[in-house]
TrEMBL record, chain A:
Biased composition (Basic and acidic residues): 528-539
Protein name as annotated: tRNA-guanine(15) transglycosylase-like domain-containing protein
SUPFAM superfamilies associated with the record: tRNA-guanine transglycosylase
UniProt cross-references to Pfam families, sorted A to Z: TGT (PF01702)
Record organism: Meripilus lineatus
InterPro entries, A to Z: Queuine_tRNA-ribosyltrfase, TGT-like_sf, tRNA_ribo_trans-like
Biased composition (Polar residues): 540-549
Start and end residues of each tRNA-guanine(15) transglycosylase-like domain: 20-229, 285-505
UniProtKB/TrEMBL annotation, chain B:
Entry GO CC: cytosol
Domain of life: Eukaryota
Positions of the tRNA-guanine(15) transglycosylase-like domain: 1-363
Gene Ontology biological-process annotations: tRNA modification
Keyword Zinc attributed: yes
Membrane spanning residue stretches: none
NCBIfam families xrefs: tgt_general
GO MF term set: tRNA-guanosine(34) queuine transglycosylase activity
PANTHER family: QUEUINE TRNA-RIBOSYLTRANSFERASE CATALYTIC SUBUNIT 1 (PTHR43530)
Name this protein carries in UniProt: tRNA-guanine(15) transglycosylase-like domain-containing protein
Alphabetized UniProt keyword annotations: Zinc
Amino acid sequence: MASTFSFSIIPSEVAQFGPRLGSISLCRRDGSSIPEIKTPSFMAGCSRGVVPHLSRDHVKSTAAIRWANIPFESFLERLPPVPTLQPGPVPLHTFLGFQPDRHLLSLCAREPSDEREIPVNGKGFISTLCVRGVRKLTPSAWKSYALSCQPDIVVALSDNPLSQSNQSQKRVTKSLERSTAWLANLLGPVSSADHGYSDTSHPFNVLVNMVGGVEERARKAFAEALVETLYAKDQQQVHPLQRLDEGITGYVFEFIPLLRSIRARTVNNDRTNNTPPKIPPKSADGVSLDNEENQQLAALLKASLSPFPPTKVRVVYSCTSPHQILRLIRDIGIDVFDAPFVHRAADLGIALDFRFPVPSTFSPSSPRTREDGSRDLGHNLFNYAYATDSSRLASSFNAAAEPEKGENPICPCLACSPISPSSHLELSSAEDQEFVKSPPVIQPPYRRAYIHHLLHTHEMSSHSLLAMHNLSVIDAFFDGIRQVLGGPDGDGQFIKEVERFCATYDEQLEVFREAEVDWSRVELERGKGRLAREKEKQTQNDTTSTVPS
Amino acid sequence: MPVATQAAIKGLTPQQVEALGINLILNNTYHLNLRPGMKILKEAGGAHKFQGWRHNLLTVETFPSIHLRLVCLVTRSIDSLQDSGGFQLVSLSKFTKITEEGALFASPFDGEPTMLTPEESISIQHTIGADIIMQLDDVVSSLTVGPRVAEATQRTIRWLDRCIETHQKSGKADVQNLFAIVQGGLDPELRDQCLEEMIKRKDRVAGYAIGGLSGGEEKDVFWRIIKQCADKLPEDRPRYSMGIGFAEDLLVCVALGVDMADCVFPTRTARFGVALTLNGPINLRLSKHEADFRPIDESCPCPTCVSGTSRAMLHHIMTLETAAAHAVTQHNLVFQARVMGGARDAIINGTFPQYLKDFFANYFGDAGYPEWCVNALRSVGVDLLDGASQAKVVSGSGAKWERVE
Ligand SMILES: [Zn+2]
Ligand SMILES: [Zn+2]
């Protein structure tokens, strides 16, 4: 690796907390680099190393994919993990089919949005899940995997327990100690003999997971340990670094464990006070979603970040909604998000249809509004209401073939703006030359009725088209954020637009809930329930190994 | 030609299919009629527009002399739909009742009895806007014996007349081309009767399909029926063999004189992890591929192989990520198109017999040639064993590869 990851904030002087524009660039040791990534931005999530539902040609033609986050645990099914054996200069890119000149790849151990129960982490390992069961992963193994795979960014192992209940003081202390020690291990020098590095500097761009649970003091303590000057043995371990933070590229927050702990604490407090657990409040005007939970969240993030200057990149895993993303940009100054709800929408048959800033008008083909007046973030295309709907996927975006007048930007995805291929394979000399040589032509958008049809007939291309579309919608969302922030009264305007967004769109994600119900019904109809397939997933590898080769 | 039963090639978008060099796909009228239904198709402006497919809806893998530039949707009655996959078919064959009027079945969606008459099947295909349309036929499983086969054969001929009449009256006869479907089960005499009657109607049909096969009959019987039909059918009409699909089946049929075939095998096997190569199919789910960094086939121009997707990566995601099915589907479709494209070139260059020999030697190699292929090709003067005296010949269907199914 030994690539140079640089992050710069524009303008360079910004407040510790608050919205900010930034820019990421990356130059690898072999000279390859990626185009600038402007922040705030998002990363595409991956499952088993692929962007869900997308073939390589689709990844290539989806401009929204710039940064892909790769959870490594599925590769622990087999040891040594196969990507670590991949020959060539950019092994992880090569193995997974990402383009070194287009894609930044970050590697983390666990799927950040996995909420399943898992055995606790131990003194020298974390527990991970793969289809063959639980696998222990040690810091030294993690380091060697990262050295072999050469991702552009590696997230240090941390002990960030996913717990339903409040953690004891002792458990929190243990978590901090382990996480610090594992980070120091990753930042320590790499034997050049082993990996061919001539320089003694550590070869990683490292993101560190900010742990400490729901105690502001604990979070702050963990952060402060990273900026402390180290002495003696501690310093030798990470030589030539004086402080751990010197070796850190940026900070990560994992929202699944964090939100869980916050909720566990709320329930606990309520119990002590003898009051029923609170339902997240939503005011009559639908505006103020800045409820207690969000305030707690902001306070905890601030506690973690307060010891550091604001110059490094800040990443959040597993945001639950675009609303939450907006608030985190506004209140904290988070730079990069993964967006699991975008992928989830494609799984469920939802075409996202929202924009930031909110469009000034809505049409009859816009998403439906709920009783409280809030508008859905998209369309549940499983719904029979779409069987005869000949609209393009999103009312708030135009199709390249139908650029209407008005404020709508064009959605560049291959569902809204399909384009015939620029080349055709010629597999016989008797091929029809008119066909083979036909130039690329922009084609009409796919209609909701067609995607509805594909969903009901279990055609996988429905999910591919939706995945590309949804990624493009979230990309446009971030583009809108950056444009507002870059305007004359950037911050002021942004705050207003966030209010407007939160007042317009439904944050309860009702459309997701409805789609989940429809989805499971169709799966049942199919005669082979989802559970059966989950089970098949579990046993797949056993079957494989019993088939003689 | 690949099969797009539900107006979609399994997992791929129309643009992806087009990039593979495939300019025709096959839809199934029966399925499109149920879902999305004619109303929606009409509103969308026909099947092409509905699925965003600007080329032809049926691939015509053909002798260069009959280079069709036509669009086709295939209507078939119920039992020959086994290639379509999915639950509909199971419930379909259960409730189907063929009467002289048409095929009656309970809709798999709402249970309502639905009648598909020959006249209606033609007008549906007119609505869809297909360039090649198929008659409705009364097809029985190829394993059926007894008077039912003769009845189905005679009825198919009567239904052809009804289809011809509807078609001629519609005023669409010059833009849409009606294909007859030769039935007759596995009985050569019935086939002859059917052929004779249908050839009499040659002036009013644009081509002939050979139906009622690929239902589990002996391969040795299969090829003899194909040959019988291909020998008798008029030279100036394309012959379309319905629902076949292994690579060796395709090549044998071409050698026997078939011009077109539809085929679900490349897409269906892809979903189970079977990738087709010139050296035989490989099952990517087997652990022997787990650390193999080679692509499926280094010489393959498909997007999967060209982008360097390794067998190891495919093994990792196979059956767990839809992207794996997409990748192998792209490869398998290109494999099939290469095999047929190579056959076309060989026919043009007069080297088809050698092409067949090379293909079979690579594909079946040491595992042994299927005996029925050897016999079928001998019947047209190609001896696969000529110059391959050590070659093993195996009886039965001859499929020998790493299959999980
Ligand atoms: Zn789109
Ligand atoms: Zn290939």
